[in-house]
Request: fold
Amino acid sequence: MNATPENSIHLPIIIGHEERDEGTFLPVYDPATGQNIGSTVVADAAIVDWAVTRAAQAFPAWAASEGQRVQALQAAAATLGGHVEELAALLARETGHSLAFARIEVQAVIGLLGGAAARSTPVLEPVRYGALQAQPVYVPYGVVAAIGPWNVPLILLFQKIADALRAGNTVVAKPSEYTPLSTVLIGRLIRGHFPDGVLSILAGGAQTGEQLVAHPLVSKISFTGSVATGQRILGSAAARVVPVTAELGGNDPAIVFEDVNPQDVIERLFWGSFFNSGQICFAIKRLYVHDSLYDTVVAGLAERAQRTRLGGPADPTAELGPLTTKAQFLHIQTLVSEARAQGAIIHSGGEALAGPGFFYPPTIVTNLAEDSRLVAEEQFGPVLPVLRFADTEDVIQRANNTRYGLGASVWSADTARAAAVGAQLRSGLLWVNGHGNVVPGAPKAGFGASGLGVEGGQSGYESYLNIRTLYGPVPETNA
Ligand code: NAD
Reply:
């Protein structure tokens, strides 16, 4: 790591045990100040090819040594335990996360690596037919390409890396071009625990990602990001018939019934929508409130939003940070301008803060049509449309009237009723009287355009394993 000048860092990318530091540099910016904070290296086609080829060469020995995999993951977790503050500070600088949230992310990565080490691969039952016996066993795929987004960059990428490695795959990973530094730094810290070629951490944008997923030696792709990119990756994977796990966007509805006490739910609704400035895939992105409570909930949320303290990671009193990317900052401004032009009422926020940094205050918007962009599309930022309903069937239909199906919540004093309404919503995550809290290690899937397959939990782990059915001598070991 070079410090050039003070406080700016440059990190070469990691291929197995080696570093690559030539070619085009990728600058990284602090979204709280707009300042350049450092750089890494864009992996070009030759570097991608080299990393994937090395991963393919390293695969057979890695797949064959379960004990080594467990030890390596445990050792990686232990090493990161000594670098939490350094990693959290870098992550906070490149994402705009609070230091507290950045620490949680780093600790979660340690938990993911340790949790993967503790996993076991199920032993499958033999299938008999007369004198014939078939023995299915789990086997790793080979080289896994792992690609992640910028909003929660470490957890989302290391969920893939940890489970894929534990299952016996080798991995070439690429974080988002906006937030690569903390991931590359983790790669530097832990690479020595893995045999050469088993884990590479590249950097770069769409082109690097395209080259990685299209590489003929990649046997499985795991992607988290937008629907548009997911569709491109699925197209590329279809051409080679490569399996894809895809965690994509969401447009989560929250439905608030008339029997809740508004004062009890305002704070939780606020954080369900605005945590990480709304840059959470399963944030509340459309809020449906029963007619009888509508005005009270809107006023309560607007009051809560107006007294929210914005600030960067250096400000310990800040409740919300900046948008992580300039593109997202501009997108949110466009959505709000469009809503205004359509006659929307803005109850709080509604204007970007004067620079520096990409700060946008929490914004409560009403008087929007169901097909306005702010309601119909994923905003992924601190702007919440609040919509009115009177009839349960009607609100279920409106909540489900989306191509997405990631998360949803139902709020009612009658939890049986809330659960019954929730059962009619198309979502991979469902909360009753809450929204957004997740248990580490629980599986996560989505319906519709929100994705394919499962990440997390035992089901997510098993998605990094294929099945081979053996006819002949029964094997002694599994993957
Ligand atoms: P994005 O799709 O723009 O980028 C994600 C990653 O894909 C980046 O690393 C990018 O460089 C790479 N990429 C871009 N084009 C590519 C291509 N053609 N081939 C291969 N890789 C390519 O997404 P983003 O803006 O970083 O993330 C925000 C989106 O991610 C939101 O829609 C959000 O809902 C979604 N998300 C989903 C989950 C989930 O668990 N479902 C979690 C977090 C974020």
User: Anything to note?
Assistant: The mean pLDDT is 96.
